[in-house]
Design a protein that fits this description.
By secondary structure, the chain is of the alpha+beta class. Helices cover 20% and strands 34% of the residues. It folds into 3 domains: 74 residues, OB fold (Dihydrolipoamide Acetyltransferase, E2P), CATH 2.40.50.580; 157 residues, Trna Endonuclease, Chain: A, domain 1 (3-Layer(aba) Sandwich); 137 residues, no CATH class.
Length: 389
């Protein structure tokens, strides 16, 4: 039996715990016998649903002392909240993709082999060029680590205008009879469905739909061991195109997370004055048209005060918006679910046009640092198409 493929070779691995991420390129981790170390993050994604301070196990590598580098450590993997090893190193994902293709583990690319890497075509550069006799095929590789629901993966986890443009450029190439390929390497073996993250990046998702007849989009799921050996299989993942046609719209619900660093007394329209304790407030709203503009309005301080949330927004130190796009109304279902997670902050807040007790909820600690909050969010954002039928 051949040795399992390890993209990092025999590089020693160190296990630690995530502490914080000051910016998208750096994280701090606790490593036994090394204390708290600063590590380069080999993945520019947001990864909010993966990295929990003091909780998430991480895997790191370390360069030898004689090599000059600002950060000696690199975070290359972590564990999901379900305990599944997750490869994060986007710089090595092309190696993983090349291995899968050359070993015949991507069903739709069997018979092709990697011919060249970093191929420049016009003003663009693409990850792989494959060969099959005299035929040539361009492949762009993407790494997908946004996993949720029962069996769903999404990409991207942050807005990527560069990624959207790259799809368009690839789709516009004149490549003869061979449609270029976008290969999404999904780093989990339990995934059955792949979708663009239309909640986070609507423009990318609309482009994803528009290029489907000009590009071949191939998601493949892979599994990892705790020593970062690749499982010897690649499983095709389905894209629910009809479901996406219905759901990729600028409509749906949203959550606003507001942080008050100190208590404030605020007059809330007809609800009168109310004292809001320091902490985190979760507001549930919806817009069945122009969701993006509605959310952008909520984020601004300067505006005519109209809704209950407008008054609380004036005293919030920080605010984060989390759209949940859907073709059907789910605001009240979302509020009901949130009432099981957090306490009601003020009766009647934001719920004058429905039968809900309130659409505003309170937590003392940051929801974005809580696994339970992300599971709840994914329940609405990452529904399996099976559940929606």
């Amino acid at each position: 039996m051949s040795e399992p493929y390890r993209p990092l070779g025999e590089t020693p691995l160190f296990h630690g715990t995530f502490v914080e991420r000051p910016n998208r390129f750096i994280m701090r981790c606790r490593v036994p016998r090394h204390g708290t170390v600063e590590a380069f993050v080999a993945n520019p994604g947001r990864m909010d649903e993966l990295l929990f301070p003091g909780v998430t196990p991480v895997i790191l590598t370390r360069v030898p002392d004689h090599i000059e580098r600002r950060t000696r450590w690199t975070c290359v993997a972590c564990e999901t909240p379900d305990g599944e090893p997750l490869f994060l190193d986007t710089h090595r994902t092309n190696d993983v993709a090349a291995h899968l293709i050359d070993q015949g583990l991507v069903a739709d690319l069997k018979g092709w082999r990697v011919d060249r890497r970093e191929v420049r075509v016009g003003h663009s550069r693409f990850d792989l060029q494959l060969a099959r006799g005299r035929r040539r095929l361009l492949v762009e590789v993407k790494s997908c680590t946004l996993l949720g629901g029962k069996d769903v993966a999404m990409f991207p986890d942050a807005v990527t205008e560069r990624g959207r443009r790259h799809l368009e450029e690839l789709a516009q190439l004149d490549t003869g009879d061979e449609r270029p390929v976008v290969l999404f390497v999904v780093h989990s073996s339990r995934i059955r469905w792949f979708m663009p993250d239309y909640h986070t990046d609507l423009a990318f998702s609309r482009t994803f739909l528009s290029i489907r007849d000009r590009l071949r989009v191939l998601p493949v799921s892979v599994g990892w061991s705790r020593d970062l050996a690749l499982a010897p299989t690649g499983t095709p993942v389905r894209i629910p195109w009809e479901f996406l046609e219905e759901q990729i719209q600028d409509t749906g619900a949203y959550l606003l997370l507001l942080h008050l660093q100190q208590a404030h007394t605020v007059s809330i329209g007809q609800l009168g004055e109310h004292r809001f304790a320091a902490g985190f407030y979760i507001y549930v709203g919806s817009a069945m048209a122009n969701l993006t503009k509605r959310v952008e309005r909520h984020l601004r301080r300067r505006k005519r005060l109209h809704w209950h949330i407008d008054y609380l927004r004036q005293v919030a130190d920080d605010i984060t918006a989390l759209p949940i796009r859907a073709s059907e109304r789910q605001e009240c279902d979302l509020a009901q679910a949130m009432s099981q997670y957090a306490s009601t902050a003020l009766d009647g807040f934001g719920s004058s046009d429905c039968n809900c007790g309130s659409h505003l909820f309170f937590r003392a600690d940051a929801p974005l640092n809580d696994v339970s909050f992300h599971r709840l969010l994914q329940r609405f954002r990452m529904r399996s198409p099976d559940e929606a039928i």
